[in-house]
Amino acid sequence: MTEARESAGRGGGAHARHTPGTPCWVSLMVHGLAATQDFYRALFGWEFQPGPEQLGPYVRALLDGHEVAGIGQLPPDRHLPIAWTPYLASDDVDVTAETVRLCGGTIGVGPLDAGEAGRLAIGSDPSGAVFGIWQPTEHHVTALTGVSGTPAWNELLSYESVSVAKFYETVFGYEEEPVVSADFDYLTLLIEGRPVAGIHGVGNSLPRDRGPHWITYFEVTDADEAVEHLADLGGHVLSSPGDTAYGRVATVADPEGARFCLIESPH
Question: Cis before residue 136, ω within 30 degrees of 0?
């Protein structure tokens, strides 16, 4: 994870984020748009501005004027899992969406234009994990990384890594780098040798109410302090901060139940 953030930062953002397959955006659909903005504004210091409304009311979250994420409002009659969804870059969303279908995935939304920002589709892999496909216009690229409140890493939690990795490799051209361990099923997905995402096979530890799903890691300065603040704001702590090889990590959820991780990078 650390290497991926450093590579993205060194790449100047724009070029790295345009490379097909690179996670280039994260988006959340919720029922209470105003309350969710208040939560993330207090937690990460995000500011908000209106975004394209092709999928209903939608706002873009900004840090220091840089767009870092999007939040939209679900129609009242839509009872979908509330979850952060990573968008993977594509040079041609329509071709990528067709490849998803041919490889056993599904496309639930689009492809469609998102105003002047770009073109998108939302699909799921053969295991059911939802992800987005994003073809940005040249001026619409998430370039801010390594700052508290920005997405730092995206990871797919699935039953096992090998079979679902074949889907993503075929659709997006990833290379894979397995973590060699007798009791740890993990693959790092690479583009041009650069780590961009991970697949973690967790077997029966997968939440029964959620199934396979992507989870986004957000950078924080102090994981313990951030977790305490999150709880005060009405969020939920699913696993307390713990030290890993990549930094101090906690798994949490916002008041509507969207799961994400907080990561404090090692100094």
Answer: no
Sign, CA torsion 237/61/220/144: positive
pLDDT tens digits, one per residue of 178-234: 887 767 899 999 999 999 999 999 988 887 778 999 999 999 999 999 999 999 999
Residue 18 structure tokens:
């345009």
Query: Is residue 221 a contact partner of residue 241, using CB atoms and an 8 Å limit?
Result: no
**Quick one: pLDDT at residue 143?**
59
Ordered structural domains, the chain, with CATH:
2-136 (3.10.180.10), 151-264 (3.10.180.10)
CA–CA distances in Å: residue 242 to residues 4, 236, 239, 252, 254:
20, 16, 8, 13, 19
DSSP string computed for the chain: -HHHHHHHHHTTTHHHHHSTTSEEEEEEEES-HHHHHHHHHHHH--EEEE---BTBSEEEEEETTEEEEEEEE--TT------EEEEEE-S-HHHHHHHHHHTT-EEEEEEEEETTTEEEEEEE-TT--EEEEEEE-TT------SSTTSEEEEEEEES-SHHHHHHHHHHH--EEEE---TT-EEEEEEETTEEEEEEEE-GGGS-TTT-SEEEEEEE-S-HHHHHHHHHHTT-EEEEEEEEETTEEEEEEE-TT--EEEEEE---
* Phi then psi dihedrals of residue 206, to 5 deg: -65, 135
Q: Count CB atoms within 10 A of the CB of residue 64.
A: 10
CA distance 17 to 67: 13
